[in-house]
Amino acid sequence: MEAVPARARGYVTGVALLAALSLSRLPATPTPWAATLLLAALYATCEHVVHRRFGGPFYPVLLAGAFLLPPAAAALVPVPAALLSPVEHRPALPRRVWRAAQPALAVWAAARVHGALGGRDAVVRSDFPHALLPAGAAVLAFCLVLTALDGGLRAAAGPVPLRRAWRGLLARSLAAVAVHGLAGLMMAVLWRSPYGPVSALLVLLPMCVSWWVFAQYHRERAAHQATIRALVQAVDIKDGYTRGHSERVGQASVLIARELGMDDDRVEVLRFAGILHDVGKLGVPTRLLRKDGPLTPQERRIIELHPEYGHEMVRGISFLGEARAAILHHHERLDGTGYPYGLAGAQIPECARIVAVADAFDAMTSTRSYSRARPVEAAVAELERCAGAHFDPRMVTALVRALARSGWHPAVTADEPAYGTPPAQRASRTGVPR
């Protein structure tokens, strides 16, 4: 069961109360219940089909409701879909309430702005281009409310710092919502035309095609991610003493990237970089990874080729972007004594400097068969001691701040036996995280 933090529950409750207040303010004039119920049923159908088949929200019907209905009636449109749709995670109640309250408030605000600017009269008269201004303002209001509520939930649920809870949300969603708003405006105009509501459904056809294309892209991305998981599992099987290490390095890389203020897309790339940083070990002979006793200089040189092997393995995965550079350079040191190329200072890509700190931190704080995990405080002290020589001080400082705020709670631990390797012999070859 995935628990919902108490602060998040309180936040959702407050948003739900605001939504209930907006729903209670029905206009004195007769409410167009037939149009409201029809739009609600259409939205519920679209949500079921689009969300289950393609994923993601589908707002044209909601925004058509904002352009056609009074604010309180428009706010009713998303409620049945939220209450009837299945919930994948538990507890279900706060998630259903959030799914109903957030779009209800957003469409209520959009309808208020649209009505205040005379948009409904322009829709009835099919008055173009004058209908575009109130519709655009309504779409902006809709998007602002959605992003404001989303950021508030992120801040309440944690561990995203308050100053970055809203960062990037509006910029990422505004273009998509604007397209949905244009489709919603076309639906509303056709709805009020002599051809009636049936003609409005024609607008949804090209939207569904675009969503199908979008879904194909996400399926391809999911296939890449499945490949990444398979590679990581293969590394864990081949080099058992690092089992779970890759996932934890990915988590620590995310902490550092978020503390540095990187946007969500780049944070995701850094997560992939951390997860895949040791994938090149698949190209290293298993006998060396499992060898009892110290490595010879020649054997160490072979193991030190694993960043180059890893880079070759992932170079064809285009969406990894700069993660490929992190895989290649995560063992470089700031003073130029690292490998494989002996880069120094700013020559080392920023992403690689992040993964290097995350890698060393997890190597020190993980419980292995040959040694007990160091306390986080001791690992941090060691990182700070090596900052400026081995590690970028800025990355070390970012990790220290992130740990002070949220602690270190890795989701994976590696406590299985390391294929019978004697503890003393294994410990003698781990001066530098591999």
From TrEMBL:
Signal peptide start and end residues: none
Presence of keyword Transmembrane helix: yes
Keyword Transmembrane helix carried by entry: yes
Transmembrane segments: 58-85, 131-149, 169-191, 197-215
Residue ranges constituting the HD domain according to the UniProt record: 242-364
Keywords linked to the UniProt accession: Membrane, Transferase, Transmembrane, Transmembrane helix
GO molecular function: transferase activity
InterPro entries registered for this protein in UniProt: Cyclic_di-GMP/3'3'-cGAMP_PDE, HD/PDEase_dom, HD_domain, HD_GYP_dom, HDIG_dom
Annotated region described as Disordered, given as residue ranges: 412-434
Top-level taxon of the source organism: Bacteria
Domain HD-GYP: 220-415
Name of the protein in question: Putative nucleotidyltransferase with HDIG domain
Taxonomic lineage: Bacteria, Bacillati, Actinomycetota, Actinomycetes, Kitasatosporales
